[in-house]
Amino acid sequence: MKTKQVQGYNSPLTLRLKIISGYVLLLVLLGVIVSLVWLEHRNMEVLNSSELRADQKGKQKTGLLKNCSTFLSLMIFFC
Questions:
Q1: What per-residue confidence (pLDDT) applies to 77?
Q2: Which range is most confident: 35-39, 44-48, 75-79?
Q3: How confident is the model at residue 41, as a pLDDT?
Q4: What's the pLDDT tens digit per position in 57-78?
């Protein structure tokens, strides 16, 4: 039993162009993935720095509240 082969125009130039286009698509995909990872990393750094600033502000407010409560308790004690 013989099978029929579909004859297409697959010259060496066409095959090379297909291989090159495949590599180009892989490089584009790799570039997209790298850029998305870089953007995510940058966003995480921004979130971490803003979280650190918020934590420092919270500590300042806590310290101020402690100082105020100490001052008020001394005022009540001496008055």
A1: 74
A2: 35-39
A3: 92
A4: 777 777 777 777 887 777 787 7
Kindly report the three-state secondary structure assignment for every residue of the chain.
Answer: CCCCCCCCCCCHHHHHHHHHHHHHHHHHHHHHHHHHHHHHHHHHHHHHHHHHHHHHHHHHHHHHHHHHHHHHHHHHHHC
Residue 20's pLDDT is what?
96
Cα(58)–Cα(61) distance, rounded to whole angstroms? 5
Q: 73: closest CA among 65, 35, 49?
A: 65
- Amino acid in position 47: L
- 55 phi and psi angles, rounded to 5 deg: -65, -40
* Cα 28–Cα 10–Cα 24 angle in degrees, nearest 5: 5
